[in-house]
Write a structure and sequence with these properties.
The protein is mainly alpha-helical. α7 (about 240-255) runs antiparallel to α8 (about 260-275) and α10 (about 315-325) packs across α13 (about 400-425). Keywords: Membrane, Transmembrane, Transmembrane helix.
Length: about 800
């Protein structure tokens, strides 16, 4: 049955097809031509629309975002039912071509993510020293600044030091130009001023030509960190040493440019130094401070603590006081030769006061009130430090007057060296310049050279050419007479003697001639002008001249003369030590007998006989005269023009002048000779007689040198500075004390006036009159609570 049903259906379809063909064949030819034309037109329109639609679809596909959802599960294809297939085939036959359908892509859903904030936006952060940041395209490597967009202050707004990266910055800015008013703020200055400030920071904060306004903006940050942050953050306290060092550096560069900056920075240094309330500050190293219109508080506290403890003021603290006291004026030698002045002041201070000056305990008490420079401190009250009962001894005038005397003494002593350095700026360490200084102030290189000489010399002596000595001390030229004398004095101060004895009038050595250096025990000083010593020098000169007259100064003769000198117990040990050095020099260059004769020619025969007899007395001074000494005396007599046969009579006369028991040789102890007092007295009498005869004969004639004295610059004469506001010393001291704080109680001022021996009411009236005369404003206001006029302080700082 199934087969028959299938055949019937197929036969029906065939009949329909045959019928259609018959109908088509019956259509006229003209109809077919019209249908073909319409078909061609349709195809053309179709192709045109298809090409245009495809051009729009390509970019849509390209812009379509990548599919992010998972792909659907693949399934096996399902075969269509016969009915559906039949209908599709029928429609295909009817339309002959498929109709294109353009499908628009589903647009991608956009993302709405919030962007990150720019770098450094947000709460202000402290940038530590050395950390690099970039703002406005400028790299800042020094740190010590606040950066951010928010750093509130009590009165509203941001701290003026805050570098806000959200603020616009110009492409150019000149920090040498003034582009801001008083109390500037980074956020409020112009974009070009911001660029200038960033450029100044990037340049190391060191250009001295920078306008001080930029220095103040930076200072405001240091002030905030040192006081406000440190009050609640130990990490900020750890920055104190770095901030103090930076303040000192800035003061060196800008302190002289702005009195206002110098005052504010000095006060902040005081705060940092004293915030921890150091005990016994007078025993600690003294920090460096700038000199302002008032003495740094740290110095005042240290001095007050010394007064409370009853301890002497150490030399270094006294030096700081003398140099920083505003009433002290240091003259040119003290400023031009600061290092040498410091050393000399300490030395003279210790010589004058021993361990130090002891200060009285007065009534005026110390208190620090910091006046902040930054507007960021408005709203904060009582920025002060108290120090209990520590007195302010600097209001007293007597102690500082004592220090002024030491200052003047040291300054006068430095004047020759200061003049030399003024004429020879590069010769500070040359021997020619150092000879203008005490040897104890010579630099380390010269001290090492002197130590080398001492090592070579030991406890004895050394001989060398004068040029070798000068070369070892780095002399640049041949020394003049004055400088040679200065060298001898310098060596003597270091316990080194020199022969020839130029300080006693000996001829100056030439560079190639020998000099002898010998050790002199500390504290052993003996005059070379005594008759005994001068006569002994003559004896050695004559003896060496006679000994060398035969062309040879033998070691035996030298040994005899050494023994002779050591036997002269009427001389001091220092005299004998110098005579032995002189004898060593004579061995290298004996005195000329011809020259000695020439010098002795003006004397008559009686004077020459007196000298000859003295020689015999000296030879007999040890109690006996050996045959060798007799032979030497004969030669000396002959050189003096005195008959040699008188030697024996003079020797016997010298022996007869002593007590009978002393006519034989006196036994000597190892420690030295013991001479009879009568013999010593006789020898002394003869010595004085001979010395009177020889006075001036053996002095070398050296023409005095003309010494050019450079006048000190004008204004160098005074040792004290003019009084504040033209006031006298006591009223100036009170004025400076008042300026150290904005507010005082009457009781505090009563104590201060009493310390200065002033009547308070009259003193305040004098201060106000002086302020009105010079600035047309009062110094103070109020009675029970006295307020200092801040406008006056600004005028004084300017």
């Amino acid at each position: 049955m199934a087969r028959r049903k299938k055949s019937g259906a197929g036969g029906g379809i065939g009949a329909v097809v045959v019928g259609l063909l018959v109908v088509l064949a019956a259509i006229p030819r003209e109809v077919w031509i019209g249908v073909g034309v319409f078909a061609a037109i349709g195809v053309g329109i179709y192709l045109y629309l298809k090409s245009k639609g495809g051009a729009h679809e390509v970019p849509q596909e390209a812009a379509r975002p990548a599919r992010t959802d998972p792909l659907p599960e693949r399934r096996a294809p399902v075969a269509p039912s016969p009915a559906v297939s039949s209908r599709a085939a029928s429609r295909l036959l009817e339309d002959e071509q498929p109709v294109p359908v353009a499908v628009s892509p589903v647009p991608a859903t956009p993302s709405f993510r919030i962007p990150a904030a720019p770098n450094r936006f947000g709460p202000g952060a402290w940038i530590p020293a050395g950390e690099a940041v970039e703002v406005g395209g400028v790299s800042i490597t020094g740190g010590l600044v606040y950066i951010g967009t928010s750093l509130p202050i009590p009165t509203g707004g941001n701290d003026p030091s805050l570098i806000d990266p959200s603020k616009s910055v110009a492409s150019k800015g000149d920090y040498t130009e003034r582009q801001m008013g008083y109390w500037p703020s980074y956020s409020e200055i112009s974009p070009s001023a911001r660029r200038a400030y960033l450029n100044w920071l990037a340049g190391g904060r060191q250009d001295p030509e920078a306008d001080v306004g930029y220095v103040f903006i930076f200072f405001y940050g240091l002030e905030r960190r040192a006081i406000l942050d440190a009050s609640k953050d130990e990490g900020a306290k750890a920055d104190w040493p770095v901030i103090a060092s930076e303040l000192r550096r800035l003061l060196d560069i800008y302190g002289d440019k702005s009195g206002s900056f110098r005052s504010y920075a000095g006060s902040l240094l005081d705060w940092i130094s004293l915030a921890e309330h150091p005990e016994k500050a007078y025993l600690k190293p003294i920090p460096s401070f700038p000199k302002t219109y008032e003495l740094p508080l740290y110095i005042r506290v240290a001095l007050g603590q010394a007064a409370v403890d009853g301890m002497p003021v150490p030399a270094q603290l006294a030096l700081a006081w003398a140099k920083l006291d505003p009433t002290n004026y240091l003259r040119t030698p003290a400023t031009r030769c600061a290092e040498e002045f410091d050393k000399l002041f300490v030395s003279r201070y210790r010589e004058t006061f021993g361990e130090g000056l002891v200060l009285p305990r007065n009534k005026t008490k110390i208190k620090l009130v910091h006046r902040p420079a930054s507007a960021g401190f408005r709203g904060y009250k009582d920025l002060s430090l108290s120090f209990g009962d520590t007195p302010d001894v600097t209001v007293l005038t007597a102690p500082i007057n004592k220090l002024r005397q030491v200052v003047e003494e040291a300054t006068k002593e430095l004047e020759p060296f200061s003049r030399y350095v003024g004429r020879n700026p590069d010769g500070r360490h040359a021997l020619e310049g150092l000879l203008q200084l005490p040897a104890t102030l010579w630099p380390e290189s010269a001290q090492k050279a002197l130590h080398g000489l001492k090592v070579r010399m030991g406890e004895g002596m050394i001989a060398m050419s004068f040029q070798e000595l000068l070369g070892s001390l780095d002399a640049k030229t041949t020394l003049t007479r004055d400088r040679t004398l200065a060298l001898a004095r310098a060596l003597e101060s270091l316990n080194i003697g020199i022969e020839p004895d130029v300080l006693a009038g000996a001829k100056l050595p030439k560079p190639h001639e020998k000099v002898v250096l010998f050790s002199v025990p500390p504290g052993e000083v003996a005059s070379r002008s005594t008759p005994a010593y001068q006569a002994a020098i003559l004896t050695l000169d004559l003896a060496s001249a006679v000994a060398a007259a035969d062309g040879e100064f033998s070691a035996q003769e030298m040994g005899h003369l050494r023994a002779q000198v050591q036997s002269w117990a009427h001389l001091t040990p220092n005299h004998i030590r110098r005579l032995l050095a002189h004898l060593r020099l004579l061995m290298a260059a004996p005195a000329s007998l011809t020259a000695l004769r020439k010098k002795l020619e003006p004397l008559d025969i009686g004077a020459k006989e007196t000298i000859a007899a003295f020689m015999a007395t000296v030879a007999q001074s040890d109690g006996e005269v050996s045959p060798t000494e007799v032979k030497m005396l004969e030669k000396v007599y002959k050189a003096l023009g005195v008959e040699s046969k008188k030697v024996f009579s003079d020797v016997h006369a010298a022996a007869a002048g002593a007590k009978p028991t002393a006519t034989v040789a006196v036994e000597l102890e190892e420690a030295g000779f013991k001479l009879d007092p009568a013999r010593i007295a006789a020898l002394q009498k003869d010595t004085e007689a001979v010395s009177a005869l020889l006075s001036g004969i053996f002095k070398e004639e050296n023409p005095p040198e003309t010494v050019f004295v450079e006048p000190e610059p004008e204004g160098d004469a005074g040792a004290t500075s003019p009084g504040l506001l033209g006031l006298d010393e006591a009223h100036s001291a009170l004025a400076r004390l008042l300026l150290s704080r904005p507010v005082w109680t009457k009781d505090e001022l009563d104590d201060a006036a009493a310390d200065l021996d002033l009547m308070l009411d009259g003193a305040i009236e004098a201060l106000n009159e002086a302020a009105f005369d010079l600035h047309d404003i009062p110094f103070t206001e109020g009675e029970e609570v006295v307020t200092v006029n801040p406008e006056l302080l600004e005028k004084l700082e300017a």
